[in-house]
Amino acid sequence: MLRNLFAGRKGGEAEHVAAQSAVSVTPRELARRQLVDDIGEFLIANDLEITESNLIAAFGICSGNDHLLVVRLAERLAHGLPVTQEWLNEQCNHTEDAIGNIADQLERSLESFAASSRSALDTAKQYNTEMQIHVDKVGEEQEREDVRHLAKLALAMMEHSRRLEAEMQRSEREADSLRKSLAKARRDADQDHLTGLPNRRAFEAIFDTHYREAKRDLDKLSVAFCDIDHFKRVNDEHGHDTGDRVIKALATALAKITDDHCHVARHGGEEFVLLFRGLGKEEAMERLDEVRAAMAQRNFINRRTEKPIGHITFSGGVADVFAYPTPSEALKAADVALYTAKAQGRNCIVQAP
Fold first, then answer.
1. Which of 59, 127, 151, 263 holds its CA 20 to 30 A away from the CA of 222?
2. What DSSP element (H or E) covers 238?
3. Taking a C-beta distance cutoff of 8 angstroms, is the pair 258, 277 a contact?
4. What share of the chain is helix, strand, coil (3-state, %, to 5)?
5. Residue ranges of domains in the chain
6. How far, in whole angstroms, is CA 273 from its chain's centroid?
7. pLDDT for position 144
């Protein structure tokens, strides 16, 4: 579907460049170049400026990483509507605006609740003072007028207290509902919509936390990348719906090995990233290889056409995080190891040197 977005692309020329590139670069590098081309074509075909936010949005669409944005784009194109800068800005700001709006509503609700509480305290203090005055008078003089005034005062205070109680309960329910909505919006912002796994943004936060803790506690820490083999072929031959199903199947398989010390996230497209706390790269490789072996035994079928897809395999690269000066260099090392796995014929896990 994404290829149809790039109106004006010269197919023959692109194939010629790809054929030349394939001679000198790895399949993974070729795929990356293709992604760069697709991002550029998307921006140019839709007359969009080359800005940071547009590049991020185009990457999410062309890589399939932002599944929700891909779906919204498909719906817009299905209605024959153009992709404008205004529309793209609206989509990109949707999640942040939603979180901001909920947070603002929660803050207003809590302010209202606090104001009601202050009002209740002030009113109670005022009534207590007046009642004490009349109680003292009644005790001294026993005047009927003071007794009647005291009764009216008590009734007024009871009525006002009931109103305040109802208002405070309403504010409390509203605040509780907004807290839940805010928590859900924040979870959605850190979740990949296709697989339900943490997304790249969430993984970066997890990695940062475990890196600092593991460094402090002298724990082992390993990171791994894995990538579905020949995924483009699945999309081209069976469609993106089947491709999504394959991505979800691998996500489910990887999620089964996760725990408090093993985290997996969808890094983008058909690529996943894993973090292993307390495991060296050999142990992490063994754990990931078990998933690879089990996945390779499964036979997939296109549910729409009943046409066999065959075996789905993936390749992976694992690195010892503390063997490198920084976390980013450890990620690069795992990525290079993934390159090596692809070059060795795919369907294998390779350790970074």
1. 59
2. helix 231-238
3. no
4. 70, 10, 20
5. 2-92, 99-189, 200-351
6. 14
7. 60
* Residue position matching structure tokens 């009927």: 144
Give the pTM.
0.57
- Residue 253, pLDDT above cutoff 70: yes
Please state, in angstroms and as integers, the Cα–Cα distance from residue 57 to each residue in 261, 271, 287, following that order: 32, 18, 34
- Report residue 167 as tokens: 């208002």
- Residue 286 annotated among the catalytic residues of the structure: no
* Other C-beta atoms lying within 10 Å of the C-beta of residue 282: 12
Q: Which amino acid is at 319?
A: A
Q: Which of 96, 130, 270, 329 does the annotation list as catalytic?
A: 270
For 201-240, b/e burial (b = at least 16 CB within 10 A) is ebbbebbeebbeebeeeeebbbbbbbbbbbbeebbeebeb
> CA angle, corner 337, sides to 312 and 52, nearest 5?
90
Q: How many CA atoms lie within 13 A of 157 on its CB side?
A: 17
Q: Quick one: CA dihedral 120, 122, 123, 129, positive or negative?
A: positive
Q: Are the beta carbons of 273 and 264 closer than 8 angstroms? A: yes
Residues in the chain, total: 353
**pLDDT grade, residue 113 (50/70/90)?**
low
**Rounded distance, CA 124 to CA 265, Å?**
54
The β-bridge partners of 299 are 311
**φ, ψ (nearest 5 deg) of residue 309:** -95, -35
- Distance (Å, rounded) from C-alpha 331 to C-alpha 80? 41
Among 3.30.499.10, 1.20.1260.10, 3.30.70.270, 2.60.40.3880, name the CATH number for the domain at 200-351. 3.30.70.270
75-112 pLDDT per residue, tens: 788 778 888 888 887 776 555 555 555 566 666 666 66
Q: Could you tell me which residues are beta bridge partners of residue 351? A: 318
CA distance 182 to 180: 5
